[in-house]
Amino acid sequence: MTAAGRRSLLASMLLTALSLVTYLFLYAPIIVLVALSFNRSRLSASWGGFTLDWYAKAASNPAILSSLRNSLIVAFATTVIASVAATAGALAFHRHRFRQRGLLEGLITIPTVAPEIVLATSMLLLFASAGLRLGFLTIILSHVAFTLSYAFVVVKARIAGFDHSLEEAAMDLGAGPVTTFFKVTLPAILPAVMAAALLVFALSIDDYVVTSFVAGVGATTLPLQIYSMVKSGISPEINAVSTVLLAATALLLFAAFLFEQGRSARTAALPALFGLALLGSPFVLAGPGTAGSQKVLNLYIWSNYIAPETIAKFEARHGVKVQVDLYDSNEALLAKLQAGNAGYDIIVPSDYSVQVLIAQHLLQPLDHSALPNMRNLDPGFLDRSYDHGNRYSVPYFWGTTGIAYDRTKVAAPVDSWSALWDPRYAGRVLMLDDAREAFGAALKLRGRSHNSTDPRLLEAARDDLLRQKALVRAYNSTNFEDVLLSGDVWLAQGWNGQFAKAMDENPNLVYVIPKEGSTLFIDNLAIPSDARNRELAHAFIDFTMEPEIAAEICRTMKYSSPNQAAWPLLPEAVRKHTAVFPPKEVLQRLELLEDLGDTTVLYDRLWTEVKSGR
Amino acid sequence: MKASARQGWLLLLPALVMLVALFYLPQLLMFVVSLGRRSAYGTVVQDVSAGNYARAFEPLYLMVLGRSLVLATATTVLCLLIGYPVAWWLARRVAPKWRNALLVLVILPFWTSFLVRMYAWIVLLRSDGVVNAGLVAIGLPQVELLYNDFAVLLGQVYGELPFMMIPLYLSLEKLDPGLLEAAADLGAGFRESFRRVVVPQTMPGIVAGCVLVFIPSLGAYLAPDLLGGGRTAYIGNLIQSQFVVARDMPFGAALSFVLSLVVGLLLLLLRRSLQSAQSV
User: Fold this and answer.
1) Which residues form the ABC transmembrane type-1 domain (chain B) (predicted)?
2) pLDDT digits over A66-86, tens only?
């Protein structure tokens, strides 16, 4: 072999190797994702043995199934509309040299520039001012708006330089424009159209930001479901669902591949049918949507805040259907209620959001005579500053912010926020990625309230946080319990609910509420001012305060219940759990976060300074 | 040609109408919002003031924008360096019957949640993670791969690579092998023909890929938060937090228009330099 030949062989081998490594790079997380769907442990930090439980759980979880079904509907509709419009648009540029070519091209490609969150809020503004009810239609319209440009860029890159004379030749030979399109043009650009469609589908089925703003009653998609689980920990059921979706797609592609290779339709039919059956399964398993004549109660709630069996009991008792939709932040809830037309009958805002909602007249006053079970609640959680006399809200769950640490790694017992500033733990500290909580810790350490608005105090707290940054491994308010369990950090600031689940996995974890005090949060049931089923909403709120029901909710969800009549009905393990029910004397040291009005902007600026510091 | 003009406009119409109604109109509403200010309760008080724009140009926020530009540039360059040879392999080395299947395999991972895939990367990269276990098993020391700039860049390249590879593949697959043979016959070496034939011929793909990677990279926030440990503020996180944490919609809107302006200028520069390159 000549030297040049050897060199080109070497180059070709290198090229193949690089390509294989790239595919491995793309699939490495997919392998992990699939493996975790078979993991007995619900947390990714440890391997608890092989199980198929998560598949069974997902298959019987109506919330997950209907969200997958909704996502498939949205993604298919978006893909069809966006790819057709984008292909037509790209062809237009090929067929005709517009005088305003640059301008028009710019008009179509510019939307890729706008950050998703801006698209999301602007879209919500549009739908709100048009008085359009949020739902499937609004989701599909917004998805088309942000995927169209991507599809256009992809198709256009292919068409550029496509030989126009081929089309002309076909026309000269007597083919009509339609025949020419299907016989000449489409085959030449088909790979690009297919690629664009696949991209659009991927963008649509995984979109969270835009969807979270424009989704309405009965239109919770899979990403909304997943993100709403962040607060309580994403369960491997999601991995199971993702694996099924991947398997279904792979089977369909395999069928298409067989068909393309000229195998008989019968050979290709088997994988195709399998794939379609898998894709169709959420449509069958999720059961019927809301029946036409039945009365429907629209519940907008955090994920893992109420068990399906509890919902079923209420439905059976009142002969109604409860439509559950999920959200993952108070701010998304506020944005949607402020825009109006949301259509929810019951929402679950946290303390400070109740304050904001009341101030904007977005809540209805409650009729206490329809809520006799309010007497079951611990008076300690009633009549708080955000809603005096509970005129608009009743507490549903409560929780705390604290420190969890691994006692095998942290030598001395932790009882103060100062542990998070201790140089012995450099690189082993995790702070919540949340301005109010991070500043809260710094302020409490200085013996101040975490509702301080004094700029000088806040600047001092910023300096403390900047000093602390050298010790902080990560700021994280999503899966912080997982980072602690994996051993990457030894101490973590975080919320009790997620830590409680982590402590069940690793008995060496300890949860403490620092002696300087910390945050108490209370999530409340409330009725929006534009709710339609006022009576049914009251019935539901009262239902959740019945001792047996409240105990069931607390037992299944493992958050702290404010219902003292339910406490004796709880199993020992829940009642004695230090993270779920901290000792009474600790509660005295807790303080609610208040909405700080204009100072919110200062917090955001100072937090950006902390994040920008080295 | 009148007929061609009418046909062109007709074909373009659906896309234009949808974008005007669903993108430009809402953006106009947003621009009006950006001139207002935040009320104490986080709603918008309408006003006509450039105050939010003045604030967006403060050094603190310019620094954040600058860092985002660096990250987006690095992501684009890396995606191009990895994506081009792989797209070349796919389009010119792989037997035609496998090509479509392998191309689809590039996109398939993106049909699952990016958030869940980021969590999977954490499992791979953390101190006791899969990669480190592999390193230790072959006698190498453990390395910290997570919660640093490396992890952010890795997450970004991972998330954007298909957007680079697809347009590159589509333009490489179309490349006429005859052109390369002609170049070789004329005595051009590989380097010469690559520079003078392949690159110009695949320029539409390169431009499309770079645009599709660079622009979304500017708005990145998930990889910096999850893989980078939220240790650095990028413009994506900053804008995000204006809307969902600070509830300061007017400032968030102003920041996003500043970002769009910067991107618009960069695209214009790119266009200019491409045109002048073509006219040489």
Assistant:
1) 65-270
2) 899 999 999 999 999 999 999
Identity of the residue numbered A253? L
**Residue from the list B4, B116, B239 with its beta carbon closest to the beta carbon of A96:** B4
CB contact under 8 A, B230 and A475: yes
Concatenate the DSSP letters of all residues of A253-288 into one string.
HHHHHHHHTT--HHHHHHHHHHHHHHHHHHHHHT--
A23–B105 C-beta distance less than 8 A: yes
Closest by CA to A465, choosing from A441, A434, A444, is A441
Q: Tell me how far apart the alpha carbons of residues A148 and B217 are, in angstroms, rounded to a whole number.
A: 18
- The CA distance from B136 to the nearest CA of chain A, in Å, is 17
According to the model, what pLDDT value does residue A344 have? 93
Residues on chain A touching B100 (C-beta within 8 angstroms)? 191, 194, 257, 260
> Which CATH entry fits the domain spanning B62-234: 3.40.1190.10, 2.60.40.2250, 1.20.120.80, 1.10.3720.10?
1.10.3720.10
CA A352-A353-A359 angle, to 5 degrees, is 95
Beta strand extents in A69-108 (DSSP E only): none
**Distance of alpha carbon A453 from its chain centroid, rounded?**
31
According to DSSP, the residues that pair with A397 across neighbouring strands are A523
CB spacing of A476 vs B225 below 8 angstroms: yes
**Which of chain B's residues have a Cβ under 8 Å away from the Cβ of A144?**
18, 22
Which residue among A157, A360, A478 sits closest to B171, beta carbon to beta carbon? Answer: A157
Residues of chain A found within 8 Å of residue B112, distances taken between Cβ atoms = 30, 33, 206, 242, 245-246
Residue-wise over A474-513: b if at least 16 C-beta within 10 A, else e?
Answer: bbbbbbbbbbbbbbbbbbbbbbbbbbbbbbebbeebbbbb
All residue ranges of chain B with pLDDT < 70 are: 1-3, 277-280
ipTM reported for the complex, 2 dp: 0.91
User: Could you state, in order of their start, the residue ranges of all structural domains in chain B?
Assistant: 62-234
How many angstroms separate the CA of residue B47 from the nearest CA in chain A? 17
